[in-house]
Design brief:
This protein has helices at residues 10-35, 41-63, 77-81, 129-156, 166-199, 203-211, 226-229, 234-237, 248-252, 257-267, and strands at 73-74, 87-88, 95-96, 101-103, 108-110, 115-117, 122-124, 255-256. The chain has 268 residues and is mainly alpha-helical. The strands form four sheets. A two-stranded antiparallel ribbon has the order 1-8. A hairpin with a 4-residue loop joins strand 4 (101-103) and strand 5 (108-110).
């Protein structure tokens, strides 16, 4: 995947930095608790590992090209064989594959665009959907893990050893509020992403169909999991690394003139 950076959205850049600040804050708080013997060391190591995976997933989502349509994009052979209507973007003046939308913030057409996420400062599309979903899952796990730790400490432990140092109580309270908000937000987003995968409709497509009262008429097939996580081993599905697709043109919804010419020269 190409490196992508949406540098024209200052609020989005600030929000993306806030994500890093909140995750680092959580890891810092748990590390301080472990250093003061308020939590076991393995608990801190586990939590910080989850935070590191969440940060890596966020970075991959933010800097990975979500599926920008190149100027030399053309319909792939599968789409042409079905004799579908070929659409073009009035802004980009390029071929517009199915499920592709033009993002006014990124000023590009994005293949399989679900939505523009200000927390990522990037669009969420076919190219970075895996990283976005991993980010949501890791943030949910880290937040739920933190709430469980604090809940056990507060409700189930009566020993004086369970009392957090006075100077860290304020940090724990703030982290608790952040974890509750993160669990609620990521639960909603994970549900939305899974719904989009299972129904074959992203957020934008779903909203358009609901607005036009054509949602019940939708018959899109579900998105194969290999079109999100790639054809690698299941172990790679858990890591924020770029997926390897079995047919890149089919997944992205377009081919390029240069690649088609190279294939033609190879055949000849």
């Amino acid at each position: 995947m190409n490196v992508f950076l949406a540098h024209g959205d200052s609020p989005g850049l600030i929000m993306a930095c806030l994500v890093w600040l909140m995750i680092v804050y959580g890891g810092f708080t748990v590390t301080l608790l472990a250093k003061n013997n308020s939590l076991p060391s393995f608990v801190s190591i586990t939590y910080c590992t989850i935070c590191a995976l969440a940060l890596a997933s966020h970075a991959k989502t933010a800097f990975t090209d979500p599926g920008s349509i190149p100027p030399n994009a053309v319909p792939n052979e599968e789409y042409v064989s079905k004799q579908q209507i070929i659409k073009y973007c009035n802004v980009c003046q390029t071929y517009k594959p199915p499920k592709c939308h033009h993002c006014r913030i990124c000023d590009r057409c994005i293949s399989g665009m679900d939505h523009h996420c200000p927390w990522m400062n990037n669009c969420i599309g076919t190219g970075n959907m895996k990283h976005f979903l991993l980010f949501l899952v890791y943030v949910w796990v880290a937040s739920a893990y933190g709430l469980i730790l604090f809940g056990i400490n507060y409700f189930l432990c009566n020993s004086e050893d369970c009392v957090f140092p006075y100077g860290l109580v304020a940090l724990v309270r703030l982290m608790t509020v952040l974890c509750i908000g993160a669990v609620l937000f990521t639960s909603n987003m994970i549900t939305s992403v899974f719904w989009g995968i299972m129904t074959g409709m992203g957020t934008i497509d779903r909203m358009k169909k609901q607005e036009a009262n054509t949602f019940e008429e939708s018959d899109e097939p579900p998105v194969p999991w290999t079109d999100v996580f790639g054809i690698g081993s299941y172990f790679t599905w858990l890591l924020p690394i770029d997926p390897l697709f079995d047919d890149y043109d089919r997944v992205m919804g377009y081919a390029t003139v240069d690649r088609l010419e190279r294939e033609k020269d190879t055949i000849l």
